[in-house]
Write a structure and sequence with these properties.
Layout (H helix, E strand, L loop, with lengths): L1 E6 L3 H12 L3 E7 L3 H11 L7 H6 L3 E4 L6 H10 L3 E5 L6 H13 L4 E4 L6 H6 L8 E7 L11 H16 L4 E9 L8 E8 L4 E7 L6 E8 L2 E6 L4 E9 L9 E4 L5 E7 L8 H15 L7 H16 L3
Parallel strand pairs: 1-2, 1-3, 3-4, 4-5, 6-9
Antiparallel strand pairs: 6-10, 7-8, 8-9, 10-11, 11-12, 12-14, 13-14
Protein name: Oxidoreductase
Pfam family, one: GFO_IDH_MocA
């Protein structure tokens, strides 16, 4: 079992601590949180070992799970990597692209592995459909959340939209060539609602909308490709795959057949991939353990996290 320590015991940090404590692939050594009052409370309430410094925790583990505010990701990762420790970093990977690139360079220099917590890659609805997503040419995403003061210190693009940016970059095997975007601040000092249009070199277009001032929560993505439409509901863990094929000469009574203006007839049929419910956070942490143990590439690499951050900042730049 890999020895792991957690940096940060806030809302998400406590979730990581609980799951790592239950995991059969890690031995949870303990945690560090700079807020002494909170650290004492977490240690007393859950029985996890509390460390008095980042360095003390890093010294006694194989893997460091960084669940601190984004501003400190770079410093925590740097300290960990220089001690030869593997790092799991919550999203976004760092506060700036330059910081993220330094983390990549350090990981290569010290020969350690890193993974970024883009948890939607492990969403069971996405996992059930990702193999059906093949060369999509139009993508539409809506990620809407009710207002929550936690997270409003960063633009909605870094808070919410970055999830969809990462998912899109993982299925579109082409480079982004053009970005148009707009964002509006309603309650916060930074934009609360944003829309972005990404154009890829292969012709694919992705239209992303994110809001943290919605009246209801929604996390849906739709992928359109040649002869298929795939819908993924990241919130309700549901998915739908609608496909088309050449219609038979004599369709059955219940076959759905469409005919276009040129007389081409297509039969529509539905696939309902089986969604295997999981704990996405536990899965992302345990697949990282597998990557370390088996010396394979993590599912969400440091490079993936950096590219998502790069695109996010290019979107933010469009607001000015």
């Amino acid at each position: 079992m890999l020895k792991i320590g957690v940096l940060g015991a806030g809302h998400l940090g406590k979730i990581h601590l609980r799951l790592l404590n239950e995991s059969e692939k890690y031995e949870l050594v303990g945690f560090y949180d700079p807020d002494k009052k909170n650290a004492d409370k977490v240690a007393k309430e859950f029985g996890y070992k509390k460390f008095d410094s980042i360095a003390a925790l890093i010294d006694v583990v194989d893997v460091v799970d960084i669940v601190t505010p984004t501003l400190s990701h770079h410093d925590c990762a740097k300290q960990s990597i220089k001690k030869g420790k593997h790092v799991f970093l919550e999203k976004p990977i760092a506060n700036t692209v330059a910081e993220a690139e330094e983390i990549i360079a350090l990981a290569k220099e010290y020969n350690v592995k890193g993974q970024v917590g883009h948890v939607e890659r492990f969403n069971p609805a996405f996992m059930a459909t990702k193999d059906a997503i093949n060369n999509p040419m139009f993508i539409e995403t809506h990620r809407l959340a009710e207002f929550n003061p936690r997270g409003t210190d960063v633009p909605v693009v870094l808070d919410l939209m970055i999830h969809d940016i990462d998912v899109i970059l993982s299925v579109v095997k082409s480079k982004v060539k053009n970005i148009n975007a707009s964002g509006v601040s309603v309650i916060s000092e930074t934009p609360d609602i944003a829309n972005a249009r990404l154009e890829f070199e292969n012709g694919c277009v992705a239209n992303l909308t994110s809001s943290r001032i919605s009246l209801k929560n929604m996390r849906k993505s739709r992928f359109f490709q040649k002869d298929a439409y795939i819908s993924v509901d990241f919130l309700d863990k549901g998915c739908e795959v609608v496909k088309m094929k050449d219609a038979p000469e004599t369709p059955g009574d219940f076959d759905m057949v469409l005919q276009n203006a040129e007389g081409v007839r297509k039969q529509i049929y539905f696939e309902n991939p089986e969604v295997q419910l999981n704990n996405a956070i536990l899965d992302e942490l345990e697949t990282f353990a597998d990557a370390i143990t088996n010396n394979t590439t993590p599912i969400v690499t440091l490079e993936d996290g950096t590219e998502a951050l790069r695109i996010a900042y290019q979107i933010i730049d469009c607001f000015n």
